[in-house]
Amino acid sequence: MTTPDSSVPLSGEARPAAAWPQTLVGAGVLLTGLALAFGAIGISSEAGYGGVGPNFLPWLVSVVLVLCGAWILWEARTGGFRELDAPTGAAQAYWPGFVWVSAGLLLNAALITTLGFILSCTLCYVLAVQGLRRASGQAGVNLPRTWAIDFIAGALISAPVFWMFTQFLAINLPGLTNTGWF
At a CB cut-off of 8 Å and minimum separation 6, what does 139 contact? Predict the structure, then answer.
């Protein structure tokens, strides 16, 4: 004798409370895909380089979002995500870490034309990593060595990105000097 699958609620059983947030996420993904598809209607489909038009990528993304949203909705409404790991981490958000990361993003946007792309993105990286280090409880976050390592890592990431965009792709990004190399 077999027993019914306990992960799928029977018609009279109540669904778990976790199914409602999952349903809302699925509905949000589905609606985002539909909104993107609605916007893609107005984009020209005239074929460009490689035989695809400018509306190809928006349509592709919207179809994938609609499929994912429908799948999430189906999973949520048929009993929720099965074999879902128990939540880990802190019971509450670590707001100081959020402030560090937000400050990095906002300062990047505010200072990119003043400091240039490389330095402003490096600053964004340093502040975001500091927030993440503090949120995870790492020791030594205030040591000058930690700050220096974060600064060097941020510069090593942002400089090649800047040079690739400006030198190879000919896309203008704000630099500290007018040479195009910094």
Answer: none
Give the dihedral of Cα atoms 29, 33, 34, 37; nearest 10 deg: 170
Angle, helices 19-40/56-77, rounded to nearest 10 degrees: 160
pTM value? 0.58
Number of residues that make up the chain? 182
Determine which helix (DSSP H) or strand (DSSP E) holds 93, and give its type and residue range.
Answer: none
* Region of poorest pLDDT, from 31-35, 130-134, 162-166: 162-166
- Report how far apart, in Å, the C-alpha atoms of 14 and of each of 19, 25, 39 are: 10, 20, 38
- Per-chain mean pLDDT for the chain: 84
Q: Which residue intervals of the chain are DSSP H helices?
A: 19-40, 56-77, 95-115, 117-135, 144-163
Separation CA 20–CA 73 (nearest Å): 10
- d(Cα 66, Cα 85) in Å, to the nearest integer? 25
